[in-house]
Design a protein that fits this description.
Layout: H1 17-40, H2 50-57, H3 59-68, E1 85-89, E2 95-99, H4 103-113, H5 127-131
Antiparallel strand pairs: 1-2
Length: about 140
């Protein structure tokens, strides 16, 4: 991240994501423990790990690397797991950001927004086929 006040000096990038994620996991655990106590009368021991919270946020990248043996490449606003998902140029020179995170969203995008029933057929059934990354859907 660029430090405009002191060019070349380190700068803190964004929010403290590890702290924030750990706090949210703690909140979720505390609420679950309170709910459980209300019905059982028993207390609960909570263990919250900052490393675990941040690792959970890395879900796609960690799973892709662990299960494929291939580290993900930077994809900007895109996603290595779903397609289409990213920033796309428009005819008038602007940019639209859109994404489909499941196959039914793709079907609706193709038919309703794009008016292209042909894109909603079996040739583009899953993200692998839509991105050109594979010959078959799982």
């Amino acid at each position: 991240m660029r430090n405009h006040r002191c060019p070349g000096a380190p700068a803190k990038p964004g929010i403290p994501i590890a702290d924030t994620a750990t706090g949210l996991y703690a909140l979720s655990g505390i609420l679950a423990a309170l709910y459980d106590r209300a019905s059982t009368g028993q207390g609960t021991m909570l263990s919250i790990s900052m490393l675990d919270a941040v690792a959970e946020l890395m879900g796609f990248a960690i799973n892709q690397t662990m299960h494929s043996g291939v580290a993900p490449e930077p994809v900007g606003l895109g996603s290595p797991m779903v397609a289409p998902y990213g920033a796309y140029p428009t005819r008038d020179g602007a940019t639209v950001v859109l994404g489909t995170t499941n196959d039914s969203e793709w079907q609706r995008l193709a038919r309703t927004m794009l008016g292209r029933d042909d894109l909603a057929d079996n040739r583009y059934l899953c993200p692998k086929l839509r991105s050109g990354g594979g010959a078959r859907c799982p």
